[in-house]
Design a protein that fits this description.
The complex is a heterodimer of chains A (about 280) and B (about 190). With about 280 residues, chain A is an all-alpha fold. Chain A contains 15 helices and no strands. Chain B has about 190 residues and is mainly alpha-helical. The longest helix of chain B is centred in the C-terminal third of the chain and has 26 residues.
Chain lengths: ~280, ~190
Amino acid sequence: MTCQDTRELFLGFLHNELSPRQRRRVDHHLAECPACNQELQDISEMWTRLGVFPEVRPSRDLRKRFYQRLETIVQTPAPVPAPDGKGWRKWIPRLSPSPVVQLIPLALLVIAGFGMGLLTTGVLAPGGAMRSMQREMVQMKQLLAGSLLQQQSPSYRIMGANQSANISRLDPTLIQILSDTLNGDANVNVRLATVDAIYRHRRHPQIRQLAAESLGKQTSPLVQISLIELLSDLPGEQSRQALRDLSQREDVHPQARESARQALNRLEGLVSGDSRHL
Amino acid sequence: MTPHHSSLDDRQIMTALKEGRSELLAVLFERYHVRLFNFLYRLTGDRMTSEDLVQEVFFRILRSCHTYKGRSRFTVWMYTIARNIHIDHLRRNKSDLPLEEVHQPPPCEGPLPDDHLEMEEDKSLLMKALSLLPARKRELIILSRFQYLDYRSIARLYGVKISLIKVTVYRGIQDLKKIFQQLKEGAT
């Protein structure tokens, strides 16, 4: 077996994918060839070195943009396909979209209908009536977001979380639903989307409290790190205490613990910086 | 609506997409977007570009779902689309994109221990070395080292024999090592 033949089997050798015969031949060659031994060591070192790149998380924006585009597609009726001659019953599922898909256009219709009602009854006038209509529309959006968040399908719950992020003011019911989702949803991606959603409302006292209390309840390092990012943007004893508690827990993933420690240092730096200015 | 869509396998989801259930694209997105983002990020070195390309991959999956025949694994088909979208992107931009310095460690306020600094420096040199490899070798190293695709799947993706893939990855690693050493010597 030549050096070239042996070296071309190195990857298989490293991954333990060689047949017993190939393995014996490589072992035999390595025992006699210091150059190939060195080469194997170099390749193995390079392969291991490549492992230092951790997985990178895309920005929050990617998920948001994806769901916005998907929502547009879902709401657009698909072109009706040509019948395949196997009977009209095959068409029934196409005419019966899921309850949630029905809910979206319904909610939009209600919003539009409400606006039209105000116009035709003459209630709509500059000032108070317009503000009242805006308030009603916000309420409708809250209802829709809350309903999506309680669907069985994780993709709809993620849509609901994204919808919540786009609402200017959260009402107590929606905050409660977001809280239940963040603390109790079995799907990590839904919980991550919920953290993204509450990020926009992080200055709200109840959301601030929710984020701080939820950190200790999370088990996924991804969700913990996401919440840590959020809390690091919220100076205050509540955030510091939550970060301090997590950074001292032995059962937490080292990366999450380290992120909590760094965020805590930043927030404590802010406090000492403030006191220096006093 | 059937509950627990997340328990459907990729082929079942593709069948549903063909039947017009576009909303199920969300399940594929949740399953694969981070993996695809990392693949494209390691190829382009640019976050924003990679996020745009990830979106393109998913919506092309939706548009092209009728061409998926289910003969190969879904991930092989998905990476074929991702590769094509990356190639289109390179063509649109005429040349290979240089890797930006996003892989540099973030600025640190306090002093870092020497070994940590060296590790971060090695990491950024290695990323640069990877960007200097020919596109195909780079793709193959990324697919085999980071994307957890086995060689059989990669061979299907490229339509060549497994042995050829292994040899190309091996040669890619050899080239990578040479470039890395040169960069390291240049940096010291």
